[in-house]
Automatic annotation (TrEMBL):
It is an enzyme of class 2 (transferase). This is Malonyl CoA-acyl carrier protein transacylase. It holds the Pfam family Acyl_transf_1. The keyword Phosphoprotein does not apply. It comes from the Bacteria. Belongs to the fabD family. Keywords: Acyltransferase, Transferase. The gene is fabD. It catalyses: holo-[ACP] + malonyl-CoA = malonyl-[ACP] + CoA.
Length: 293
C-alpha cells in the first residue's frame, strides 16, 4: 500500500517548484495562487531570497503550493491508499486527497499563517529540539516545569520538539540536559507552535475552517492530533481546529500507517525530511520523492 506524505514548514528552498511551472496545468495553478494571495508568490519561490522565503506569510503558502501542485500534475500516477502531512502539510494532504478544493486550501493556509504570525508577535515564545531521550521522559519533565512548555512535534523515536514560553523552554532544556538528553537545541522559529500559546490563532482559524466546505477524501487522512485515519468531514474539521494547539504525533502516524499496511512512503513537496523520519521508525520500508515523469 502506498502512503503519500506532505512536509511542513522548514522544507522551503529558493527555486522550489520552478521545474513544475513548465507544465501548463501547474502554471495555471501557480497563476491562480498569485491572484488569490495578491502578490506573485511564484516569483519569490522560483527566484527570491532566503529572507523573503522565510516570512511566515510566504513560507507556509509556498510549501503548500509546491506540494499540492506537484500532486495535481502527477495525474493518474497519484493513487494514494492513505495520506498524512506534518503540521502545515496536513492541509496539503487534504487538498491532494480531494477533501478540500485548491482555492479553499490555499485560503486556509494564508489565514493560518497570518493568525500564527499575530500570535507569535503577541507573546515572545520559541521551540527546542530534544534529542536522545524517550518521549515519556520529555513529557514528564515538561509537566514538572512551572511555566508554559509542552511536547509539540513527535518527529521520530529519540527526537521530540518542545514548545512554549522563553522561560519554559529554558527551564525545560536545562532539566532535560540534566536527565541525559544528547542535545537540547533551541530552534530559530518565530513562536511556540503547537502549544497553548497558539490559542488566539486557533480561535481565529476555527472560524475560517468552520466556514469552509470539506468533503470526504479519496482515502483515509491520518491527522496530526491523534495519528488516526479519518474520512468523515466533520471529524476532519474538528481535528484541523485542534491542530494549532495540539501536538504533531508524527512518530505515531508513521507507526499507524505501517500497522495498517503501508509498504511505501512517497514524499510530495520540497525536501526529503519526512523520508528520513520514516526511516527512523522503520529502516526496511521503501521511501521516495514524488517526481513528474
Amino acid at each position: 500500500m502506498k502512503a503519500y506524505i506532505f512536509p511542513g514548514q522548514g522544507a522551503q528552498f529558493v527555486g522550489m517548484g520552478k521545474d513544475l511551472y513548465e507544465n501548463p496545468k501547474a502554471a495555471e495553478l501557480f497563476e491562480k495562487a498569485n491572484e488569490i494571495i495578491g502578490f506573485r508568490i511564484s516569483d519569490i519561490m522560483f527566484g527570491g531570497t532566503d529572507e523573503e522565503l522565510k516570512q511566515t506569510n510566504v513560507t507556509q503558502p509556498a510549501i503548500f503550493l509546491h506540494s499540492v501542485i506537484l500532486a495535481k500534475v502527477l495525474g493518474d500516477d497519484f493513487k494514494p491508499d492513505m495520506v498524512a502531512g506534518h503540521s502545515l502539510g496536513e492541509f496539503s494532504s487534504l487538498v491532494a486527497a480531494n477533501a478540500l478544493s485548491f482555492e479553499d486550501g490555499l485560503r486556509l493556509v494564508i489565514a493560518r499563517a497570518n493568525a500564527m504570525q499575530k500570535a507569535c508577535e503577541a507573546q515572545p515564545s520559541t521551540m527546542a529540539a530534544i534529542l536522545g531521550l524517550a518521549d515519556d521522559v520529555v513529557e514528564k519533565i515538561c509537566a514538572e516545569v512551572d511555566a508554559v512548555v509542552v511536547p509539540a512535534n513527535y518527529n521520530c523515536p529519540g527526537q521530540l520538539v518542545i514548545s512554549g514560553s522563553i522561560e519554559g523552554i529554558d527551564l525545560a532544556c536545562a532539566k532535560l540536559t540534566e536527565a541525559g538528553a544528547k542535545r537540547a537545541l533551541k530552534l530559530n522559529v518565530g513562536g511556540a507552535f503547537h502549544s497553548p500559546l497558539m490559542e488566539p490563532a486557533k480561535i481565529e482559524l476555527q472560524a475560517a475552517i468552520e466556514a469552509t466546505n470539506i468533503s470526504a477524501p479519496i482515502c483515509p487522512v491520518y491527522q496530526n492530533v491523534d495519528a488516526k485515519p479519518y474520512t468523515d468531514p466533520a471529524q476532519i474539521k474538528e481535528n484541523l481546529i485542534k491542530q494549532l494547539t495540539g501536538a504533531v504525533r508524527w512518530t505515531q502516524t508513521v507507526s499507524n500507517m505501517l500497522a495498517d499496511g503501508a509498504t511505501e512512503f512517497v514524499e510530495v513537496g520540497p525536501g526529503n525530511v519526512l523520508q528520513g523520519l520514516v526511516k527512523k521508525v522503520s529502516r526496511e520500508v521503501q521511501t521516495s520523492s514524488a517526481v513528474v515523469a
